[in-house]
Amino acid sequence: MKAVVLRSFGEAGNLKLETVPMPRPGRGEVLLRVHACGVCYHDVINRRGNLPRTSVPAILGHEAAGEVIEVGPDTPGWKTGDRAATLQRMSCGECALCKSGRNSLCKTDNRFFGEELQGGYAQFMVAPVGGLGRVPASLPWNEAATVCCTTGTAVHTVRTRGQVRSGETVLITGASGGVGLSSVQLARLDGARVIAVTSSEAKVRALKEAGADEVIVSRGLDFASEVRKRTQGAGVDMAVEIVGSATFDQTLKSMAPGGRVVVVGNLESGMVQLNPGLVIVKELEILGAYATTQAELDEALRLTATGGVRQFVTDAVPLAEAAKAHFRLENREVAGRLVLVPPEA
């Protein structure tokens, strides 16, 4: 089969199309014919060598959607022809964390697609069925591929971890990416006022289409004073921190007393300095948000299929152009998601 293989960490050009052996499903697994795979900034971080659990050679991609063409032994409930999309990572379903609904923190089985598990930058991939969701027949493949990591992450971040409430004001950094655009829509759907931050004037239109009440264009990412101005000095009740280290200080300064900062991204893998006094006197809550659970993926697929949340797929490009897709993402040329489309087998 054809797959994009990363044989050494580093620049985008290290992603090369190759012919590799066809995988076969084992117990509890299915073989998917990949119809589409989203390109996430997590893939860029992975390609650079900043995720310690990935070893090369590797096939990246945790946003895959496709059709089941073979079912492994002892895999009840799945058949050829079923439509599926991947979660970002696995969970065992049996440990105390899983049973409490915190599947994204499972340590018993924490394999991640594109890291320990083969990813979707390929014509075919084997996937454990515990890491799959069922794609509605009405949902196009290009949209289905992106749902888990965009809208699923938004459900986990905005609802599960942030517990957004109607009438609140929500700040979203890095808002023009896939997670950001879904977070804008979901927060609005749940009755919040949304202030979106982007570094590019070219991305304002997509944010307005997603429903952002206000958009702050801040090329230097020094947006806190403008946020406070637009909230009459009050600050925001909740922040979805997608950029991470580059905007964290400004986000903290944008918070209202008692505010909640949900950290879901750290694009440059950087460190931050934190003034504990600010957290203390404002009684701020800083919450982490990691990966989508099975229930959250099901909800994300439902929201997308029923039109509650729209997937912003900017472009669908051939699998062979994975390196170009990474280059475009790194250079902030993309609002929403790029999707890789493998060639017909």
UniProtKB/TrEMBL annotation:
Molecular function terms in GO for this entry? oxidoreductase activity; RNA binding; zinc ion binding
Q: Which domain of life is it from?
A: Bacteria
Q: For this UniProt entry, what is the primary localization, expressed as one broad class?
A: cytoplasm
Keyword terms of this UniProt record: Acetylation, Cytoplasm, NADP, RNA-binding
Checking Pfam families in the record gives: ADH_N, ADH_zinc_N
Keyword Chaperone belongs to the record = no
- Which named protein is this? Zinc-binding dehydrogenase family oxidoreductase
Species of provenance? Myxococcus fulvus (strain ATCC BAA-855 / HW-1)
Q: How does it assemble?
A: Homotetramer.
The record places domain Enoyl reductase (ER) at: 10-340
Compartments in which it is found: Cytoplasm
Q: Does the keyword RNA-binding apply?
A: yes
* Cross-referenced SMART domains: PKS_ER
The record ties this protein, via InterPro entries, to:
ADH-like_C, ADH-like_N, ER, GroES-like_sf, NAD(P)-bd_dom_sf, Quin_OxRdtase/zeta-crystal_CS, Zinc-ADH_QOR/CCCR
Quote the cellular component terms of the Gene Ontology held in the record. Answer: cytoplasm
